[in-house]
């Protein structure tokens, strides 16, 4: 009896504010769609030569992109950058994010509410470190970028929390 009461109370409470759940449901659905369309790890257009990559990248860039590492908050090159331009993948040079969609989340990592083009970033479930998160990777080469959270600003409500070490910023030249 008590269980029925609690359940119906919870239901009516949720029902009363159902409209507030709609954006959350939409965001969750979108993340699940991304994850279900994620390619297998060896199914990327750009194949990575790990030995050559070690020569090309700094140890931090290699650790973050190839070993799913995370740079310390507020230490990356781009978390506070406000210049106009594009953020490329440090491994394969694909355009991943635009400065127009960057925002100050206060988390200490570059944050974007959208990817540069639909499909330029892929998502996959990440169960590491005892957490349930959504990992984001470069769709072309599979480089680890960071994670996707559902606490970003509108219009998407999403926050791509990205390591500076995964990115290479290219500023817009004046007049473009
Ligand atoms: Fe890439």
Task: Please describe what this structure looks like.
With 176 residues, the chain is α+β, with helices and mostly antiparallel strands. The chain has a single domain, classed as Metal Binding Protein, Guanine Nucleotide Exchange Factor, Chain A (Beta Complex), CATH 2.170.150.20. Helices cover 28% and strands 23% of the residues. The chain has 4 helices and 9 strands. It has a 6-stranded antiparallel β-sheet with strand order 3-4-8-7-6-5. A hairpin with a 5-residue loop joins strand 1 (85-89) and strand 2. The longest helix has 19 residues, at 18-36. The N and C termini lie far apart (68 Å). Mean pLDDT is 84; it is low at 1-16. Fe (iii) ion binds next to loops. Fe (iii) ion is lined by residues 89, 91-92, 94, 138, 140-141, 143.
Could you name the key traits of this structure?
176 residues; Metal Binding Protein, Guanine Nucleotide Exchange Factor, Chain A; 3-stranded antiparallel β-sheet; 23% strand; globular; disordered N terminus
Strand arrangement across the biggest beta sheet: 3-4-8-7-6-5
Rg, alpha carbons: 19 Å
Task: Summarize the biggest pleated sheet.
Answer: 6 strands, antiparallel
Question: What are the distinct ligands in this entry?
Answer: fe (iii) ion
Structural class: alpha+beta
**The named CATH superfamily:** Peptide methionine sulfoxide reductase
Number of domains: 1
Q: Assign the CATH architecture.
A: Beta Complex
SSE run:
HHHHEEEEEEEEE
Low-confidence stretches: 1-16
CATH class: Mainly Beta
Mean pLDDT, as a whole number?
84
Given the C-alpha coordinates, what overall shape results? globular
């Amino acid at each position: 009896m008590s269980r029925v009461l609690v359940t119906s109370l919870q239901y009516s409470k949720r029902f009363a504010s159902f409209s507030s759940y709609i954006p959350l449901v939409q965001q969750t659905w979108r993340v699940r769609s991304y994850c279900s369309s994620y390619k297998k790890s060896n199914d990327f257009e750009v194949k990575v030569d790990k030995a050559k990559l070690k020569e090309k990248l700094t140890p931090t860039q290699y650790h973050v992109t190839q070993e799913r590492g995370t740079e310390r908050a507020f230490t990356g090159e781009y978390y506070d950058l406000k210049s106009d331009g594009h953020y490329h993948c440090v491994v394969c040079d694909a355009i991943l994010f635009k400065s127009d969609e960057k925002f100050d989340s206060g988390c200490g990592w570059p944050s974007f509410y959208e990817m540069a083009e639909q499909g330029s970033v892929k998502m996959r479930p990440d169960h590491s470190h005892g957490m349930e998160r959504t990992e984001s990777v470069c769709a072309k080469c599979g480089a680890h970028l960071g994670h996707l959270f559902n606490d970003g600003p509108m219009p998407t409500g999403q926050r791509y929390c990205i390591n500076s070490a995964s990115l290479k910023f290219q500023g817009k030249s004046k007049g473009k």
